[in-house]
């Protein structure tokens, strides 16, 4: 099953200059809880943005047009090639970036989104439109706190 997992603003902004817009502890904890023990698939620039490289406790797959060897990662030149190396019943989490979300939104069965109550002034990466094809099944809302300077919500969707 393919799932997309992302943290985005109300206008679907996800990044600026290859960095996440938001660093919310609860979002990071949820990301870890959902993806640990599973396959995560990312673009090379997303991999480059990870401060310590491959994420531990997960199968890390990186898509890159460049012939690379990355520690603790499998690298493939296309999405199709990467998916050929995954079992049909494997839980695969697409973790970014924007181009990969755009490529995979049509094949995803689930979305795990953290939506931040914000409209950032600057962003150069956005999550694709999805509302027409997905149904909201769960929402958990959180107020602004000392751990997060923004209110946010965890929203889970399934394909209609």
TrEMBL record:
One of its GO terms (biological process) is tetrahydrofolate biosynthetic process. Pathway: Cofactor biosynthesis; tetrahydrofolate biosynthesis; 5,6,7,8-tetrahydrofolate from 7,8-dihydrofolate: step 1/1. Residues 1-159 form the DHFR domain. Keywords: NADP, One-carbon metabolism, Oxidoreductase. It catalyses: (6S)-5,6,7,8-tetrahydrofolate + NADP(+) = 7,8-dihydrofolate + NADPH + H(+). GO terms for cellular component: cytosol. SUPFAM superfamilies: Dihydrofolate reductase-like. GO terms for molecular function: dihydrofolate reductase activity; NADP binding. Gene3D superfamilies: Dihydrofolate Reductase, subunit A. It is an enzyme of class 1 (oxidoreductase). Its EC number is 1.5.1.3. Pfam families: DHFR_1. InterPro entries: DHFR, DHFR-like_dom_sf, DHFR_dom. Belongs to the dihydrofolate reductase family. Key enzyme in folate metabolism. Catalyzes an essential reaction for de novo glycine and purine synthesis, and for DNA precursor synthesis. This is Dihydrofolate reductase. It comes from Prevotella sp. GTC17262.
